[in-house]
Amino acid sequence: MPRKLKDSRLVMPTVMLGKDAVLLTTLEDLPAFLSFNTRTGHQQVLTTAPKRTSCEECFEVKRAAVNAEQVAWLIQGGRRPDARYDERYLELWTMPRTGGPLRMVTRLPVGGDDYSKGFQVIDDLAIWWGFDGTWSVPLTGGEPKQILPEGTVRVTSWPWGYDRARESVINLVTRQENKAQHLDDIEEPYCGPVWCVGWMTGQPHEAMQVVMQHVDGSKRTTVPGSPLSLTPPIRDRFTLLHPLTVSGDGSGTPVGNSRLFQLYDRCTGQTALLGPDRARAEATSGEIHYGAATPDMSMLFWKDSATRYTVLDVSRIADSPCAG
């Protein structure tokens, strides 16, 4: 899909709105939000950020999440009443998935810098977490409520979180706790409600290995590579990996085209390469991105050339028999 609209405004994919529809966000101070049909190329403006007075950079999209009816945004804004000062703040906004006016839900009780590490919408509840703890607020409005203070617990998929210090998976509603097992040989393990992901360094000049296993230590699988981010497998099935590296000086040495990434399917044991080919790699940043937070985190995208993105909807990869 294009990286620019016909009027030359740059856009970025945000989330799949349907089988053939992607939500695009224009990259400007007051962004517009459009539906793009991947089959026909048709574009439709769904809404535009509201104009504010005495404001610069006042609607910078930081994170997005969706439920069945709404798209929610964490927005960073700024107000400069005096050249000596820079007031920054974070707000929660929503819009209907089918289009319509944006509505501000609340201003977040945090400093102006975006320290959020994650953001999800579960039914009608927005949840975000970061250096200042874990917070929630109804999408209908109200005062944000702190669920957890700052600490070692990080939400993976609400209501589940992973406590890195205790190496335990915790239900943050019921307080049920499951101790992760057999992590002694895994570097920086990170666990969701079912699966843990980490990595192992080999001997010098051996390939680094990603490790996936059940929280109880069973069903361990290793694959050459290193995890792109410390998150559980997408849809409990796919793991996104950095380009293949070998152990050596501790930093890892890339093998082959360093702008390609690997998508490993634990059900089939197969790996697909994602990213631009060598002929177009110089026109891209060599990065791959997740779309907005959804229950299955299914959208990935990357810059394929100077003018186009490639979007992959992982949920449309054919099902495969995969027990556990």
List the helices and strands and how they pair.
Layout: E1 11-16, E2 21-26, E3 32-37, E4 43-48, E5 60-66, E6 70-79, E7 87-96, E8 103-107, E9 116-122, E10 125-130, E11 133-138, E12 145-148, E13 153-157, E14 160-163, E15 168-171, E16 177-179, E17 187-191, E18 195-200, E19 209-214, E20 221-224, E21 238-241, E22 245-246, E23 253-254, E24 261-265, E25 270-274, H1 278-281, E26 288-290, E27 299-303, E28 309-313
Antiparallel strand pairs: 1-2, 2-3, 3-4, 5-6, 6-7, 7-8, 9-10, 10-11, 11-12, 13-14, 14-15, 15-16, 17-18, 18-19, 19-20, 21-24, 22-23, 24-25, 26-27, 27-28
Distance between the termini: 35 Å
Mean pLDDT: 82
Number of strands: 28
Helix content: under 10%
Strand residues, percent? over 45%
Q: What Rg is obtained from the alpha carbons, in whole angstroms?
A: 21 Å
Query: Count of helices?
Result: 1
The unreliable regions are 249-253
SS-based structural class? mainly beta
What is the approximate shape?
A: globular
Q: Provide the succession of SSEs.
A: EEEEEEEEEEEEEEEEEEEEEEEEEHEEE
Main sheet: strand order = 1-2-3-4
What is the makeup of the main sheet? Answer: 4 strands, antiparallel
Any overview of this molecule?
The protein is mostly beta strands and 324 residues long. It has a domain at 152-274. It has one helix and 28 strands. The protein has one helix spanning 278-281; strands at 11-16, 21-26, 32-37, 43-48, 60-66, 70-79, 87-96, 103-107, 116-122, 125-130, 133-138, 145-148, 153-157, 160-163, 168-171, 177-179, 187-191, 195-200, 209-214, 221-224, 238-241, 245-246, 253-254, 261-265, 270-274, 288-290, 299-303, 309-313. The chain has a four-stranded antiparallel beta sheet with strand order 1-2-3-4, with no helix packed on it. Strands 5-6-7-8 form a four-stranded antiparallel beta sheet, with no helix packed on it. Strand 27 (299-303) and strand 28 form a beta hairpin. It is globular and about 55 Å long. The model is unreliable at 249-253 (pLDDT under 50).
